[in-house]
UniProtKB/TrEMBL annotation:
Keyword field: Ligase, Membrane, Transmembrane, Transmembrane helix
Superkingdom: Bacteria
Spans traversing the lipid bilayer: 12-30, 36-52, 59-78, 147-167
Predominant location category: membrane
Protein name: O-antigen ligase
Organism lineage: Bacteria, Pseudomonadati, Pseudomonadota, Gammaproteobacteria, Chromatiales
Keyword Transmembrane annotated: yes
Recorded GO CC terms: membrane
Keyword Lipoprotein: no
Domain O-antigen ligase-related intervals: 20-163
GO molecular function: ligase activity
């Protein structure tokens, strides 16, 4: 969003404000040590570079962000990012994988209705307790994924509707992009 606002703004002051907002968001990703957000940031920059017209400027901007992260990120950020390689030994990642598998079990058991909107953590903790956990000190988790959460809570109709919204939005935006003749960035 910030990148779009930077490119779309006519006033220099607005561009500066949006650039600062983008920097705050990038530092927030580093500060929270979110592996998913870091991967999403890399994917977003790669996509925008691929779709952009000014490849050299894009490489300079991406390089600047990378150098800033390397220079200012604390060592604990890089330690956390290294856990992506060995996710099997990391509790947070394994908890999500267990929750995702449970969402599939919920959808298999209730393909049309799911377990009900807002009931994922309750049903995971009661009716669909994963075999990986015992009955003592079981954490009531959420799926941490819109796709799996919708699949478990709303079943196949819910996930089909959600995917139709996403695909329809993508197609409409692609059409607008082609009609406008503009590059999404740079």
């Amino acid at each position: 969003m910030c990148l779009f606002l930077i490119m779309d703004s006519k006033k220099t002051l607005h561009k500066v404000i949006y650039i600062l907002a983008l920097l705050v968001l990038i530092f927030a990703i580093v500060g929270t040590q979110s592996r998913g957000a870091s991967l999403a940031l890399m994917g977003t920059f790669a996509y925008l570079w691929w779709m952009g017209r000014q490849k050299f400027l894009g490489i300079l901007l991406i390089g600047g962000v990378l150098i800033s992260i390397l220079a200012f990120a604390p060592p604990v950020y890089f330690e956390r990012m290294n856990t992506i390689r060995n996710y099997e030994s990391e509790g947070s990642a394994m908890g999500r994988i267990v929750a995702w598998k449970t969402a599939i079990r919920m959808a298999t058991a209730h393909p049309i209705t799911g377990v009900g909107a807002g009931h994922f953590p309750v049903k995971l903790g009661t009716d669909f307790r994963p075999p990986e956990f015992g009955y003592e000190n079981f954490p009531w988790l959420t799926a941490h994924s819109s796709y799996f959460l919708i699949l478990g809570e709303l079943g196949l109709p819910g996930i089909i509707f959600f995917l139709a919204l996403l695909i329809g939005n993508y197609r409409r935006n692609s059409k607008i992009y082609v009609l406008s003749g503009k590059s999404p960035i740079l």
